[in-house]
Specification:
Blueprint (H helix, E strand, L loop, with lengths): L1 H14 L9 E11 L2 E4 L4 E4 L2 E2 L8 H12 L3 E11 L5 E7 L2 E2 H7 L4 E2 L8 H13 L8
Parallel strand pairs: 3-6
Antiparallel strand pairs: 1-2, 1-5, 2-3, 4-8, 5-6, 6-7
Length: about 140
């Protein structure tokens, strides 16, 4: 199973124009989803999805964003990709998360569960901003609050 995930990840990242191919981290099993952009994995690490920001508790669309990340990842096997930083100030690993070939970070923005985290951009900032623009134009998710 590890080899399948590794080969898929190399294929996907190798096809991206101008991107560096990194060896994926994992596979890991997601043990807990804390909110729409933070999760725990079975090696004890806490992962913060880099480049995105979801609503906080008591904000519009918090519950929906959290539930979407749970639906996508909780109890499932994921791969991680390092981006332009390793950890945030809280010690969480900053990563792009993949589950069954889906880039979860992009998915959360594309479907309106997250916005681009402009204060701490990822290497995919321009692509994420384009997805955000489309979600905003369609009034998806948090853009309809």
């Amino acid at each position: 199973m590890k080899i399948v995930y590794l080969l898929f990840f190399i294929l996907i990242t190798g096809c991206m124009t101008g991107s560096t191919v990194y060896e994926p981290e994992g596979p890991y099993k997601v043990t807990k989803v804390l909110d729409g952009d933070t999760l725990d994995v079975n090696n004890g690490e806490r992962i913060r999805l880099i480049g995105i920001n979801t609503p906080e508790k008591n904000e519009c669309y918090y519950k929906e964003a959290t539930e979407e990340l749970k639906k996508l990842t909780e109890g499932k096997v994921i791969l991680l990709e390092i981006d332009n930083a390793d950890k945030d100030k809280y010690g969480r690993l900053l990563r792009v998360v993949y589950v069954k070939g889906i880039n979860v970070n992009s998915h959360m923005i594309e479907k309106g569960f997250a916005r681009v985290f402009d204060e701490f951009p990822s290497l995919d900032y321009n692509s994420l901003k384009q997805l955000e623009k489309i979600a905003k134009e369609k009034n998806l998710g948090l853009w309809n609050c």
